Queue: 2 jobs
Job 1
Amino acid sequence: MKKLLPVFAFAFVVAAVSVAPASAAYPTKPVEMTITFKPGGAADISGRTVAKAAEKVFGQPIVAVNRPGAGGTIGFAYVKTAPNDGYKIGWLSASILTGTTMGKLPYDYRAWDYVSRLVFEGTAIVVRADSPYKSLPELVKAAKSKTLKIGSAGSGSFTRLTASALSQKAGFKFRHVPLGKRRVPSLLGGEVDAISVHPPEVLALHKAGKVRMLAVSFPKRHPAYPKVPLFSEHGWDVGFYQFRGLHVPKGTPKEAVQALHKAFSAAAKDPKVLATAEKRGFLVSYMGPDKFPAFVAQQNALIKKVVVSLGLDKKKKKMKK
Amino acid sequence: MTEESKKIRLRVGRLVVPILLVGFYVWYGSLILELPQGPGEEGPLGPSFIPWLWASLLIVLTLVEIATGNLGARRDEERVVIERKSALDALILCLLLAGFAVLMQYVGFSAAVIAFLAVSFWWSGIRSWKIIIPYLVIFAFVVNYVFHHVLKVPLPQDWLF
Amino acid sequence: MNLLVEGIVQALAWKPFLFAVLGSFMGIIFAAIPGLTVSMGIILLLPFTFHMASVTSMSLLVGVFVGGMTGGSISAILLNIPGNPAAIVTSLDGHPLARKGRAGVALGVAFFSSFLGGLFSLVCLVTIAPQLADFALKFGAPELASLVLLGLCLICGFAQTSMSKALISGILGLSFSTVGMDPIDSIPRFTFSVVQIQQGVSFLPVMIGLFAVPEIISGMRGSAVSLPDFSTRLRDLLPSPGTLAGLWKTLAQSSLIGTTIGLLPGTGSAVAAVLSYNTAQRRSPEPESFGKGKLEGVSAPEAANSAMTGGAMIPMLTLGIPGDPVTAVMLGALTIQGLAPGPLLFESHGGFVFSIFGSFFIALFLTIVIALLGIRLFVQVLRVPPGLLFPSIAVFCVIGAFALQNSFFDVFLMIGFGLLGYFMQKFDYPIMPLLLAIILGPVFEKNARMSLILSDGDPGIFFRKPISLTFLALALVYLVSVFLKRTSLFRKPGSA
């Protein structure tokens, strides 16, 4: 241990010197954007596309870093505890609301500052092509007389909450199957009657006629699947949608938030982002820091209602702060 | 080491490991008790079912191991020899690695890697500073450049490189 | 056939070809440097492909995938540190061969087995991909649970001195695999209310720790046995036609197993390697010489893990369902290019699909050429004094564990399991079962519990499905045969 001491002493001197002096204009160095899901997934693709476009206005690189695990929890917790100097930002999704309401994170949704909403992603109810249900009302009618098996990405996942909210609105009960990664093969293999899923995962199969998207929970019809009706057209609007956007650690300076807002609002108009959105089946819908926090609060209230009605908030052991 | 002391140590090994395993079983079991028991929210098997299955298999196998290792067929075949020195080496290396990982978060990757390697080289018997210093500088620079700047691994950075 | 030729020609254009070379090279490097893994390589290279043409980006990623499956055998054989999970089995016989001075032969056989296994799976991919994809859909939750249970039973095959020790090691792994978020009810288990532990025990950091740390310790303290020199001349590396002919049965069955396992989501290359090793061992006239340096023991897992690559790409390309973590990233790369893999990809972008096949074909050739030539370089690295080499490897292990999920938790996981692995080896507890259990435990738990949800609590679901019943029967037969063999060993002590 004696030999180590000088080394550690040296290291701490290094640490002390390396704290750079605070400079005037933000941003002076690259910003790191945490993506809470794995590389190549939906969150990763939309996040990286938007970040790339925002860089042009922002003037500094926006480096996307994946911190996946436990349904986004790991990444959200990272952003929560990161320094609030404006150089650590996060690509959030509605999963942050499910994670906080169900106690997977030891704080509620107000633990972060919200900058802007960038995109909406739909949630679709999908059946196999040979299924007897041709439309959502047919499925609902059948579900009222017998218990159907409907799969989702997991117990507390956004897709599950959408399916459950639909069942509450339309008045049926179903057997939920938390299929996880095997959601699409499981549907194709005939293990479940329907799945609740984000459209990009089944878009290719839908176009090939292997599966049928019955309806999608979305603010408006999407050009990638224009013939698929919305939940709201059947009168069963669940009110909350999968959204993605930008958040920062609590107490991040106003100038930083404004600079990010400026860069990302420009990115929302970038032709490359719009083209990717059309192909990938998401919807670009920008909302700035003036309105976004209120929107998050409103979505949180809706999601919390479903979570509480399903009893998902009770049994979970709370995480330590 | 004399034959006799070796034998004693073997017996210690045969007893200590099973005792540790029983200890692990008790700990693991007490943690399972904190989980919701019985059927789960989603299906007939709850979150504690599979852990209980593994825990019961573990205790059964540990008892088998105690029986065969100390009384049964392998009683005289046991060839476990653990030297105090090599066990210490393992602990030191792991502490060094953990120190490296912790240090990196405070002083950045390059400084931490230099500190870690310098200590490790010294410890593993490379004492010539003429070799160590150039190797350290080049290694820290190249690795940081390739992984951080080219491959974009978000290693913590500092003022070096 | 014409389409395939066109595809190959397309992939031979200078840019895709250049990136195929780069990909295969990087795949080999990532797999051969202890601590770095193919998964890490693919994850790190993915962002670069966003700005490339689609054919080019796929040649890069396919190159890494194919190269990585071969490269893992280099460090497994020479250093006894497997470069990727698929190569953990390769080290069982590969390293003993190297100790005997036959490293050249072992490497040659590994490279050629990889090549032939990959070629087999490519043929399947080109000819019967849609049919195989439909076959894969027959594997539902009960089938996967039974298959994984069979895989777990094979842990017995890794017993060295005592069966109970191998099984304890496996059960410890299964217990560790229950840490983190419950896969069905999403309840955090054994997390001590720490958010980071919810991500659970991921197997790649564990693998790096278990296999690399003990070797680093002995390497740094000068207790490592240096390998006898071996010739790296091409003539001595290439296995003789006779050797390869003697291995053809092993190669054929392993390629078949590898391709099939690749088709099934969530099982992975380690299972393919273990199953084929075990099959080769059981079918061999001298099963007891496995684990002491037998060429079949190198050939079987290497053919299987390369065959897995083609298998895993089948559901990815035909249905848009990734078969393993690497193809999941590839799927992302394709969608970012605006190509949606699925049944229509063959019709709408048939030329492009065949160019992927073409780059796969080219990557196979490039990999074997680069591996054969590069081995000289690698042997040079082995000449670096161990006091310098092993601390540097330790740094790569830390980076490798970190970069998978950019998480320091994974780094500490790697270190902790490294220490555990070291003491387990000292007390004669084999570490292979521990790792396999950590890979398979969550898959088993998830699918077993899922099956019971699907059947409304009726355990008969495991026995009514023919595929599931077959696996369960195989597992039972295996366990009985092991038990009979062991009890006969007990009667004549000394023969173990």
Job 2
Amino acid sequence: MPKRTDLKKILIIGSGPIVIGQACEFDYSGTQACKALKEEGYSVVLVNSNPATIMTDPEFADRTYIEPITVEVIEKIIERERPDALLPTLGGQTGLNAAIQLAEAGILERFGVEMIGANAQAIRKAENRGLFKQTMLAIGLDLPQSGVAHTITEARAVAARIGFPAVIRPAFTLGGTGGGIAYNWEEFDRIAESGLSLSMASEILVEESVIGWKEFELEVMRDKKDNVVIVCSIENLDPMGIHTGDSITVAPIQTLTDREYQAMRDDAIAVIRAIGVETGGSNIQFAVDPKTGRRVVIEMNPRVSRSSALASKVTGFPIAKIAAKLAVGYTLDELPNDITQKTPACFEPTLDYCVVKIPRWAFEKFPAADPTLTIQMKSVGEAMAIGRTFKEAFQKGIRSLEIGRYGLGADDKDKMLVSDDLHNALRIPNAERMFALRQAVLAGMSNGEIREMTKIDPWFIQEIREIVETEQKLAACKDAFSGPSLTEEEVELLFRAKQEGFSDRQLGFLFGKQELEVRSLRLSHGIKPVFYQVDTCSAEFEAYTPYYYSTYERSPVELAQPANPPTSKPAQQKIMILGGGPNRIGQGIEFDYCCVHAVFALKSAGYKTIMVNSNPETVSTDYDTADLLYFEPLTLEDVLNIVDEEKPSGVILQLGGQTPLNLALALAAQKVPIVGTSPEEIDRAEDRKKFSQLIDKLKLRQPPNGIASGIEQAVEIAKRLTFPVLVRPSYVLGGRAMEIVYDEESLRGYMANAVKASPEHPILVDKFLEDAIEVDVDLISDGTTAVIGGLMEHVEQAGVHSGDAAMVLPPYTLPKSVVDEIREASIRLSKELHVVGLMNIQFAVKGSQVYVLEVNPRASRTVPFISKAIGEPLAKFATKVMVGETLKELGFTQEVILPFTAVKESVFPFGRFLGVDIILGPEMKSTGEVMGLDRNFGLAYAKSQIAANQRLPLGGTVFLSVKNQDKLQSAQIAQEFSDLGFKLVSTKGTADFLRARGIPVTEVMKIHEGRPHVVDFILDGKIDLIVNTPAGKATKEDETKIRSLAVARGIPCVTTVQGAKAIVTGIRSLLTEGLEVCSLQEWHGKMRREAQV
Amino acid sequence: MKAFLALEDGTVFKAEAFGAPGEAYGEVIFNTSMTGYQEILTDPSYKGQIVVMTYPLIGNYGINREDEESAKPQVEGFVIRRLSPLASNWRQQGTLSEWLKEHGKMAVQGVDTRALTCLLRDKGALKGVISTVDLDPKRLIEKARSSPGLVGRDIVREVTCDEVNAWPQSPSGGAKFRVVAVDCGMKANIPKLLTQTGCQVTIVPATATAKEILDIKPDGLFISNGPGDPEGLPYLVSTIQQCLGKLPIFGICLGHQVLGLALGGKTYKLKFGHHGANHPVLDIRTGKVEITSQNHGFSVDPASVPGGAVEMTHVNLNDKTCEGLRHKELPVFSVQYHPEASPGPHDAQYLFQRFARMMATRKPA
Ligand SMILES: Nc1ncnc2c1ncn2[C@@H]1O[C@H](COP(=O)(O)OP(=O)(O)O)[C@@H](O)[C@H]1O
Ligand SMILES: Nc1ncnc2c1ncn2[C@@H]1O[C@H](COP(=O)(O)OP(=O)(O)O)[C@@H](O)[C@H]1O
Ligand SMILES: [Mg+2]
Ligand SMILES: [Mg+2]
């Protein structure tokens, strides 16, 4: 069937900011969908509040709305754009829920918008846990016993029937939000209540627990002729009870016979038919009792999901692209398999490798969070690795995580656990469990015992056991490997170790050698990887898409002439781009965005591009993006191997975040041709001592600072600088373990507990600039010309990490003189460092003094945000200058001055880590960002807040409680709220202060003063907005309670006066001017017109 | 134990034996199924062949009696990348290597099966030898070259049953049709599914004559899958010719090929055949696609059947080869692929019902 011609314009809803449970994968799917639909000649309208996405680049849609994803906003967009159809299945749970709400509000019907892919009825059947259950029973599938509840009384009745442990699963949520396992009534009430409140439909499923069963997933595609294929099968190494997003998962399924697999396949096909997903992809999850084989269906996601992104990368089958084409009427047999070109997309990929995905958590950022893994997802990213065996893929996966481990053990990083500690580490699922498995083997536990404690299938345990056994063998041969020559057996053992995924680093540790020594040793014995293709068909057909992974294979002992001798292709210059690896807090989609831009820019300039990355969620790892894709860990060893293979003429390090940058010196030492700012200059910016010299040379100002290698020295420095000071270890990055200390006692505490200072690992002590305004500058330079990309003023004061602060482009309070000074300093810094490419500088402005906080000689998190705002592709320009073009040639020689305002706001995972304090500090905690665009600061800021999922009240009651220092400013804020018709509530101190200034305020008791106190007020739903600036230790507990409650209840809570000022301005703008929508293309058009006149 | 795999083109792989020791010859082909190694090993169609699994991790779930397609491994040899020492599954009754040793079958691991597959894809199926007794690569290449190969050979005789036997009836009884199944090396799941479809199945050797078949007075005739070259089976072709018009006939795989020959058509050898569980096949009449299980090295050229008597009903979407035929006037149809799956998807099981309907109406399918 040909594509539909009755549709002209199609609306796609994106998934908004990166949050736990919804990451880059929906940029990947959305980008594919936009491309696919545009390719077919449809006009595409896109809504997404996340500026760091490729999909929101203006060329990917005809109209791009970087606006909040809410029903009201999308209604306005629909009213303006009048799309014929809405494709709801590619924007994650956010997109799906928005679509359902639009349907339920009658908006789609009113404007005649058809839902394609999956209609509202199908979505409801899949997402509504009760309807889903009914539908499954009707087609004869088995489910755990359960009941649906809409109130706590109903929920208790179900729990009474099925007993404990009971699993609670809310409807219409993502990443297990609000779910949990209850072992008693107290837990049950708590989880059930939170689940009910977090579910869009106030609906939860209370279910019999099948914890410990095997968990499986199938990725299914269906077209409108009812052809159904299974694209990928996935087995979770971690059993039921651990969210699939938090599980180590393996593709394909390893431990089911064909009979069992095919029965599951039949079920999956029955499910997609019964739910009625007309076209597109779905993810279906099953649990299997390891003792009897009883199989139950757990859930179906009627949309493209995190697992489908993974499945696409696992198999090479572009699920999202195909889903988009199916939605407009094509059938699977009409679409080609791009990889083989000759065969159709209507088939089931078959793998000749094993893929392991390992989640990456960020518990180190949230020490107060419960690190137990349960049915609520907690990881912030993931790495995927491909190998010919599980062992190889697993070890590659671990080193892809970039957590300082280069495989399973064979380093001295594990604290050896004994008896109970080890048993608990096995029994209670946690982020470190894979390392505990190694220890269990070392401790002599049998497969059976380990299985008993972990419920992990013995097949996986055995594989891990073999890795550990090889490690022990290698360790036993340490002396032999240090000797001058190796025996045949030793070479064989070395080869085996490489086949099992051991890194040169691990081998170096075991042999007492450097990583590079191991590298030369193995190369001298001809042990080097081969690069095999991901081709969807296990080599049955020739593949045309160069998507590779490394592995170690023995070549034949005798080699015949190949049938088709390889033809030598005309030499084309190759440029290699190193990606950012797994998402983590501090390094995420923004860097992938930059890498993808580099690829586009280089391709258009005629280069052959090579992408290296290990993050399956991303656009950069789409086989369609670069000319050659290497799905590999970003370590020195793996990168050098690829460089050996491809011999690129240039390698780009500055776009993938800190990951590739950290390899700069080591790669340069191996004569890898690095393009852009030179590694020596990079080092000059990153090394504290060299950096200070640089600042002095340029006569710029830096906060006074010192380097301490012990406690006493730190105290001495702090006294010299005067408190407060900012302390951090010199060797960790991304604001890790960074703290502001206000007195000697805390400093001693920090030095004693938080970090171990030593001469090799000194502590950096900086004077902390209080109440300073922070400014971020992104700049591009070709070595001769330097141009400011954007100069952004932070809303929150310095001390809130630049990745967490709201930022405003252009600056909204700073005087021109200061801005000009910053501009000039930035340009001078770039010249001094001979920057070629991008550079980011952070300044702090205290009074009228400008300080340089930090220089990052690389692309920063804000590059995509600025590029969106100014309509100029900074990352593309940077790439082109790195390969020799000048900014003049590129026509970018002048800073763009915006005639409107763009606000970047951060999004935090506090909702997942209840009980963790939401106060912002110098350590970054946000997972993602949104952008608000409008004609003035107030509107743009308000939009950014709505987009960040704040329920911004337009009236009601504000609870105000601020520390003494902030009282004066807070009076002004209170007055404004009051003028806007808000009621004010305060505790005594603030209330007295406000009343004294004639501002009407209701006083409420503090928690320890008796009841009803402020928490009662919040619980009663009497508070719509909280302004609470932290006052220090005394009232800390009370405050933490208030703030946590605000998070749990979804009440906006502002913790800085600057933030409060901004929010009241935002609310005023909304009340007086109203909220209007406008596409990026229109903003840019307007800007260009204004620039001309 | 050290072993070698040598191919007629001169390529030799070093390997490690995990089945029985010895030496085995066969045509080396690759199978792309990720599951179902036990079904593959016990499928008599692989007689004469050394099977290479493209999926590298084999043996994970062990073996069990239930999943056998015949009582023993039928392949000549088995080549994989890595064997699991442990069998993990609630139904497992032993490990793969123990079972292969028990049956005296040769198997090797540690081979770069992807490199081998690329080679077979580019050069076509090759004759090969696996040995643990002769470890001289040059001599092994010679042995591979002088081994008999498949073309023109009748291997069916080695796997067909010795005498007529009745397949156990369905416990629920009520069989509606009596079916004679010609066993060319029939997979066990075929009589199972025929029985489930309401047939009482009598299995006869491939050498049974038309008279012997007709004497049973069946409602329909089934021609099974089997190994080797259909052109090596003139006796079976003639048996079928004598039954044409007298009985509704359904053929699978080799059964489809000999039926094609019986109707006057021609078969030819494919470069490296179809062996896997993911082949898309279009049902030309409904426009729907089935994901099918396949295992064949030869194919029928539908245009070669004289007089336009047959119509191609199914086509392989990967290489456009013929996957199904029906006679326009007679109740006769066949498919090249395996509706009985085992291993593979169940998408095509409806064909057994089609056979039953054809027996009921005695009209063309
Ligand atoms: N009945 C149950 N018993 C034990 N674990 C369960 C049960 N139901 C679900 N789970 C676990 O909870 C996880 C999340 O549940 P799921 O419904 O898939 O949530 P989400 O919609 O967030 O993906 C699953 O991956 C599984 O491990
Ligand atoms: N001397 C200082 N005074 C006030 N705030 C500071 C000072 N130094 C750093 N900060 C704050 O800490 C944050 C993180 O510091 P930075 O050096 O940028 O680390 P990172 O490498 O994590 O980006 C900055 O964004 C800024 O808000
Ligand atoms: Mg799920
Ligand atoms: Mg910084």
